[in-house]
Design goal:
The chain contains nine helices and 25 strands. The chain has about 575 residues and is of the alpha/beta class. It has a seven-stranded parallel beta sheet with strand order 8-9-7-10-11-12-13, with helices on both faces. Strands 2-3-1-4 form a four-stranded antiparallel beta sheet. Strands 18-25-20-23 form a four-stranded antiparallel beta sheet, with no helix packed on it. Helix 5 packs parallel to helix 6 and helix 7 runs parallel beside helix 9. The N terminus and C terminus are likely disordered.
């Protein structure tokens, strides 16, 4: 019996053993014979590796044999063959947000089409950072080799993100449920949207706007997070009280946190940018009051309910990007119907801790799962799970491409009450309820052609002067994207202003690529694209034939350098696809 999971584990009288690559194969075989072992198979996927059998009747002494062999200097790995039941990871019947199902005898069909997405991917190869209060990393739904990546307590600066319950009035229950919605394994009681994604649990118990808050984002980006899920923010007004003064309170995003998020966007995922999501808020109030969720570089997620409408508490406004299924509450004064389900079924803290202290009515009798998680706190990690599915299919996507893909992957719900405008945006649902299957289909790499125009210049950049370098593009095919690579040597790049001047025929104004950033850093080699230079996105759909000019101005005295090379990458629109030109 596995002491951690309680699963039955069977052993055989077989052993896997791998000797060092440098060991002589004849010596390896002699060692095995001396231990009374018979070679059943020489393993082909590793050097000097064997699957061997002990004498029949050896029984549990096979563990002793393996342990003795492992002590040898020439043995790298050695363990008995252990067999566990193979269980297919599953979506459980109570998880109506993931597929059409029945709850308490009622058919619920208001899901995000996640089960269909799992036919393509379950999130393998992606890492989701959940920044929240403590996360129960000992839960079986977060177990398995490699499931946990770079755990962190950003507040205490330790590697233990488990709940601490510093304040009895506000226990660390929230983060575990959020993590379960994103990437619970689905092995025993609850599946996440991306059950095979890795989890980076980051506990944050510090105050809003603290330096520890910024540190949490930096930790996520520096340790390989692809997606960052944040189900927190400024305090909400009471959703049922339109006169609550908090509805009119504006909470700006502090510079320290904004710069940390920008760091994730600019440096995460090797420069492609982490996808950062925030819960829109539960105050039934304008999301624009929340500087975190309304920041243009994040995805603000609203909540929709089990009837396919808006959850009564969900914040609204132009910054809402999409909606994801969550719980709801009936409210007669608003003429808002009661929900059909308790809420979202997901992972809970173990035993008596958490939302379910051990009642079947609240989840399961052991207290390890809850049936009533909700709020935009649940919607946000649900959407984060979809982002993980998307990046699992196409890890080359940049953060802004994922955000735009979400726009195209939404189903328009509540068409009469949603208030959708001409662009397809609703203040209640953003572009609609996320459809996970549509998202992963859109994410599949598409055929694309293009050219790179490059020239080596090795020309000087004189002190306090402006110099220009040009490339000619002969193809007039509309482009899908443009990137610019600059390679220069300079003794102080903080002196430089680098501007790209597109051909006059494009109708585009000059685009500043580098504006005296970097201070005393020597040399600059960088690729500029729509992710780090948004103005380049305006070239999509245009013909880029003509003369492209790179203008470099040295704006301060004393330092000098030279341009090594300048390259222009043009990706053309595939004939089977279309790119909408900017207005």
């Amino acid at each position: 019996m596995d002491p951690k999971t309680g699963e039955p584990v069977l052993y055989t009288e077989n052993i896997f053993i791998k000797f060092l690559d440098t060991a002589d194969p004849d010596d390896c075989l002699e060692v095995l014979r001396g231990a009374g072992l018979t070679v059943k198979e020489q393993v082909t996927y590793a050097t000097n590796a064997y699957f061997v059998a002990a004498v029949e009747g050896t029984g549990q002494r096979v563990f002793d044999i393996a342990a003795e062999l492992l002590k040898r200097d020439d043995v790298e790995y050695c363990h008995p063959e252990l067999i566990r039941p193979r269980v297919r990871k599953a979506i459980f019947p109570q998880q109506w947000h993931l597929r059409k199902t029945s709850v308490n005898g009622l058919v619920i069909d208001a899901h995000a089409n996640v089960e269909a997405a799992h036919e393509i991917t379950r999130g393998q190869g992606t890492t989701v950072a959940v920044i929240d209060d403590g996360i129960e990393i000992d839960h079986v739904e977060f177990s398995g080799f490699g499931k946990l990546v770079a755990p962190r307590d950003a507040t205490l600066r330790s590697e233990d993100p488990r709940p601490k319950d510093v304040s009895p009035s506000f226990p660390d229950d929230h983060g575990t449920a959020c993590a379960g919605v994103v990437c619970g394994n689905g092995m025993h009681g609850a599946s996440g949207v991306a059950p095979e994604a890795w989890l980076m649990p980051i506990r944050l118990a510090s105050g809003l706007g603290s330096q520890r808050e910024a540190d949490a984002f930096i930790w996520a980006a520096d340790n390989g997070a692809d997606v960052i899920s944040c189900s927190w923010g400024p305090p909400d007004g009471r959703w049922w009280n339109p006169n609550d003064p908090l509805h009119r309170q504006v909470f700006p995003l502090p510079a320290s946190t904004r710069l940390a998020i920008d760091y994730c966007i600019n440096h995460g995922r090797g420069g492609k940018g982490c996808v950062v999501l925030f819960a829109a808020g539960n105050g039934n109030e304008p999301v624009e009051n929340d500087g975190y969720a309304s920041y243009s570089k994040v995805i603000a997620v609203a909540a929709c309910n089990d009837r396919g409408g808006r959850s009564v508490y969900s914040d609204f406004g132009s910054a809402v990007w999409c909606a994801f299924p969550s719980n709801d509450m009936g409210h007669t004064p608003f003429n808002h119907a009661r929900p059909l389900t308790p809420g979202i079924w997901t992972v809970d803290r173990l035993g008596i801790h958490g939302y379910n202290s051990g009642s079947i009515g609240d989840g399961d009798a052991a207290g390890n799962y809850t049936n009533s998680f909700g709020g935009t706190s649940s919607a946000c990690p649900g959407a984060a799970g979809v982002a993980a599915l998307v990046l699992s299919v196409n890890p080359a996507l940049k953060w802004n491409e994922v955000k735009d893909l979400f726009r195209r992957a939404c189903d328009r719900i509540d068409p009469q009450g949603g208030g959708y405008d001409a662009t397809g945006h609703s203040p209640k649902y953003g572009y609609g309820r996320l459809n996970a299957r549509t998202a992963v289909e859109l994410a599949k790499p598409q055929p694309q052609s293009g050219i790179t125009i490059s020239r080596v210049f090795n020309e000087p950049i004189p002190d306090l002067q402006t110099v220009s370098f040009s490339l000619e593009a002969a193809d007039d095919t509309p482009v899908e994207s443009v990137n610019v690579e600059v390679d220069l040597q300079h003794t102080y790049i903080g002196d430089l202003v680098i501007t790209l001047v597109p051909p006059a025929e494009t109708g585009m104004v000059p685009i500043i690529l580098h504006n005296r950033g970097g201070g005393p850093t020597r040399n600059l080699k960088k690729t500029y694209d729509a992710a780090n230079t948004p103005a380049l996105a305006d070239l999509a759909g245009r013909s880029c034939k003509g003369t492209w000019t790179l203008r470099i101005r040295d704006a301060a005295a004393q330092d000098f350098g030279s341009l090594i090379s300048f390259s222009l990458g043009l990706a053309f629109v595939h004939p089977d696809r279309a790119v909408v030109s900017p207005p």
